[in-house]
Amino acid sequence: MGGLVARALLTLQDFNPDLISLIITQATPHIAPVLTVDRYLLDFYDTVNSYWLLNANTVKNVTVLSVGGGFRDYQVRSGLTILPSLNIHNTTISVVSSAVPRVWISTDHLAIVWCKELVLSTVRALFDLVEPDSNQITQNQEKMKFILSHHFVKHTAVDHEEEADSMSPFFGLKSVWTEIGSSSWSYSGSNEPRGKYFSFPVLSHRRNFSHFHCQSSVLDGSPWLYGCTKSDISVCLEGMDLSLESELLPTFKIVTLSLNHYLNLSHIIVYIPRTNGNKEFTLHCEFFSEESRTATTQVPNVFSFGISASKVDFTSSGLMHTLQLQDFNQIYQAFTVYVESKCHSLTEELPSVYRWHIPWSNEDSFTAVSVPSSVEISAKLHVARPVNDSSVSVLHLYTSRDCQYQITIRTSFFQVLGQVIRFHGVCLPVYIVSNILLGYGRQLSNVLSTGHSVEFDVALDSAAKPYKVDPIVNVLKLLLRFTWFNTVWALLFLPELDAVILTNQGNWYPLVSLFLFLFGTGIAYWSCILFHFFLKLLSSLWGALRRPSVVSEHGRLITPGGLGLIIFLNIISWMTCGAFALLVIYLLYVFKVVGLLTLIRTLKNVLNLAPKRKAENEKAVDSRNVPENCGVKECPLPNARLPALGRDKFVSVSAIDEAVDNLRMHFTVLNLVTWAVLLSAPSLTYWFKNLRYEKRLDPDPCRHVATVLIIALGILIKSSTASMKTSKLLKHVARIQLPVSVAVVAFGLVHLYRVSYFIAFSLVLHALSCFV
Question: What is the layout of strands, in order, in the sheet containing 403-411?
Fold first, then answer.
């Protein structure tokens, strides 16, 4: 977040933007927060990004470099690290670490700050940015961006200080030149006492070929490729330095020249530098036609599940091949690419390098393999292709000349799911709460119709249906395309539909809502089972530490003690932190549910003793004036040895049923409040870490919702199912849970903090139904 704070400095009214000329950020989520757990964070993002977009002229003297961690960063996906001002002015650079020259690896969120390869790239860039005259960072924006691009986007494989001069002398004699007449040439050697020059005539190859390509294993920073503009190579003592067109790859450096861009060249000269020792190097060069080395294929459909595949064979020998992938431009697409090489010779001097190139963003990835080999490459995107962009993703194969390659592309179902979780995993709490609300409504309907509640998993199984939520949201999204509906929407003061926001960002696509709803249903179901199991273990421990007693569940909803607790916790909320007060009432509710579990176990144990005491009861019939046909369920039990339920009360099956109904409803309420507590955890963590400086969290994003939840839970903690059966509001409360579950999905996907508001709304209605 430090990178965002640095950009936020310029939004301060009295801050001088001339004080900053360069900002380097690593794994900073510039686009949006990873979790939108409060509205203050969203307001902060809107303020910063809007300022940079609307005041481009003010910040044009500030160069910003943003580096993302790639697919290994599970905390901040790299799509969020791309600067929003990228399309407004050209003083920003966004790149993924897997594409950074001399790094070529993905990093996790912590390793990105101490990854040695990335640290060295940053240090080299900072040294090059220092002006030798002033010993300060340069203020020349063009030079600054050029240096940063050199070290973080495309390294030209030559030293930076040598790049300024495009004309270089040839320190050689006429006898040193060796002219290569063939279109393909290789050289290998070691311990060269003096440099060598090899010239390739361009004019004789221009008719048949469109490009010239070289691969060199020498990775030093000296110039090595020149272009001669003289027709006679013997008099060409000075030429154009073409090393600026070269590029550094993980195992060698390359250069690919389009002959149409250098129409004035007569010769291309390759320089073999002087070496001492046993350092071996290899050089391969060739002329080739781009059409013969380029293939295009359609990627398989995402619903093919790997059954169908796209196959491409490169049978022509050569150093470079290009595969263009049509319709590979969406974030939900993910493929496994199998590249198999078959070589005529078993010994190759240089390995092969496969490079994914994404034209609309710097998120390239590299794979270096020895040949012959068979390798799997994962192909997926960090950012969807912009709407006004028609470029295609490309797989470049820098290969060995004696090998043939077969490429097979299959849809990877598990990687598709991984993309869904990567981009929309933060939306899962929304769908989980939506499912819980549907099950909650079914339980309330059962209380209304039968007088009894059902288990939450049973209610969830019957009520959690995708067609109850998704079609409504999709219809609203469709209607919002019409002006008249937008007008009505605005008159109702409704916020913008979150699905529309995600669609405009390119992060929403068909069926993703269905997948997330099914995931949410599964998580809600199994978390309910595990949570119930945990509470049962806690109840067993509680029963072992404390002697169980049977207490009456009937009483007033508001008692002096309960009212005092509500007032006290609200004072705590306003004096310290709302999330802390919410956690306290939540723990009290947990003990309430644990006490109900202990009560039910005790009641069942008491009831199970009845058959054993049957003989004693029959003997005591005459003395206690009990009819002979008294059944076990109605007969009073000896109170001397059994816990008392209350004066003149009998332990019966109906008492257990009532306690079970109360437990089911309280467990669902606790399940809902659990998610409200989890969503308030960041505020609680921040308040706790800042406690030594300030006791009160201000501003507190959870204070108001905590106040409402404390009042509602303070009432519900004393409530019972019996008090709701005759409620006039119960019918409406049960029915309104479906609209609330739809509203959670409609307005909580981007604004996650709103989920707590909807939970509080449902619980307030539940509390009111206990009175009316």
Answer: 309-314, 403-411, 334-343, 374-380
The first and second tokens of residue 67, run together, are: 């580096």
pTM of the predicted model as reported, rounded to 2 decimal places = 0.85
User: What's the half-sphere exposure (Cβ side, CA atoms, 13 Å) at 144?
Assistant: 21
Domain span(s) for CATH 2.60.120.380 in the chain: 167-288
For 342, the 3-state DSSP assignment is strand
The domain defined by 292-411 folds into Jelly Rolls (2.60.120)
Which residue type is seen at 491?
L
- H/E stretch holding 764 reads helix 754-769
CATH code reported for the domain at 167-288: 2.60.120.380
Pairing mode, strands 253-258 and 211-216: antiparallel
Q: What SS3 class is residue 264?
A: coil
Split the chain (772 residues) into runs of 10 and give each run's mean pLDDT.
93 89 94 90 92 85 92 92 66 91 92 94 94 89 90 82 54 62 82 74 84 82 75 67 84 88 84 69 86 91 85 86 91 92 69 90 88 88 87 90 87 91 92 95 90 89 90 91 91 91 85 90 93 90 70 66 91 93 94 87 69 54 50 44 44 76 91 95 93 90 94 90 83 93 94 94 92 78
Q: Are 23 and 65 in contact (CB under 8 A)?
A: yes
Distance CA 304, CA 427 (A): 26
Please state the three-class secondary structure of 671-693 as a single string: HHHHHHHHHCHHHHHHHHHCCCC
